[in-house]
Structure formats: C-alpha cells, structure tokens
Design a protein that fits this description.
The chain is of the alpha+beta class. It starts with a strand and ends in an 8-residue tail after the last helix. A four-stranded antiparallel sheet has the order 2-3-1-4. The longest helix has 11 residues. The structure holds adenosine-5'-diphosphate and magnesium ion. Adenosine-5'-diphosphate binds next to loops.
Length: about 140
C-alpha cells in the first residue's frame, strides 16, 4: 500500500476543551503524519458547503451551527492506508459505540459533538483537502 492522504478536522467541541494536542498525539501514535494544519473559524455558510452531502439529513442545521461555533483545526494526515487508519483512530460516529482507545470514545461528547471529522474515501479526501488547502501549503 502506497502512502495516502486524508483530510481531518478537530471540531469545535474539542478546540473549546483545549484537546488539539491530545488528539494530534493519537494520530501520531498511530503512524499518521500531520503534513498540513491550520486553525480557522468557519462561517455557517462555509460549514454548510463542506457538509453539503448531509443537506437533507434532519441534523444538518444543527451540524452547521456547531461547526461554526468556535475555531476548528483543519489538517491533512499522511500515512499507509491513511483514510482507513484515521477512521480507525477516530472510532464510530456515536461515541457510545466507539471502541476503547479511540478519539471519539475518549473525547466525544455526543453523536453530534464528536470531536473529529475524517474523510470516508480517498476520492472525498482529495475534494475536502482542496476545499481548505492550496497546493503550496502541502509540503509532505
Ligand atoms: P462521520 O463523521 O463518522 O463520517 P457522518 O458522515 O454520518 O459521520 O455524519 C457527519 C457528522 O454529522 C457526524 O460526525 C456528526 O457530527 C453529525 N451527525 C451524524 N449523525 C448525527 C445525528 N444523528 N445527530 C446529530 N448529529 C449527527
Ligand atoms: Mg462522514
């Protein structure tokens, strides 16, 4: 398996509780390398465009409000099988169902305020990375 990149967000519930470093440590312990990272504060419209795929879901409004409530840390993680590896480190969407040791089991507060986003495919990772980062910011 070749090196792969995935897109990650440390969400408002986690930045509010000063958990950026603790979550990054989990990524690095799992062999994921943070090759790009910045802290931004999204508008509701920017969050809405990012989560466009969920526009018809009942929680969409709540999700966009939450994601623009406080700053987030957007990042590109690189490693062998990075998309699947990151989903493993994150744990299930609902923290009540997440495995022990995962980010969401340890830090998430609810199914909505679940501390991290991670791309679900290499194709979506490329789209999501391009939404937040310019090519010149990706130095490997
Ligand atoms: P994941 O982030 O694990 O890929 P989804 O893509 O299904 O999960 O959902 C995107 C995000 O929407 C979740 O991470 C969570 O913040 C929010 N969300 C998902 N399901 C619910 C729900 N039932 N109620 C409130 N928020 C939800
Ligand atoms: Mg998803």
């Amino acid at each position: 398996m070749a090196l792969e990149r995935t897109f990650s967000i440390i969400k408002p519930d986690a930045t509010e509780r000063n958990l950026t470093g603790a979550i990054n440590a989990k990524f690095e312990e799992a062999g994921l390398r943070i090759v790009a990272q910045k802290r931004i504060h999204m508008t509701q419209a920017q969050a809405g465009k990012f989560y466009d795929v969920h526009a018809e879901r009942p929680f969409y409004g709540e999700l966009c409000e939450f994601m623009s409530r406080s700053p987030v840390v957007v990042q590109v993680l690189e490693g062998e099988n990075a998309v699947a590896k990151n989903r493993e480190v994150m744990g299930a969407t609902n923290p009540a169902e997440a495995d022990a040791g995962t980010v969401r089991k340890e830090f998430a507060q609810s199914i909505g305020e679940n501390s991290v986003h991670g791309s679900d495919s290499a194709e979506n990772a490329a789209i999501e990375i391009a939404y937040f980062f310019a090519g010149i910011e990706l130095v490997g």
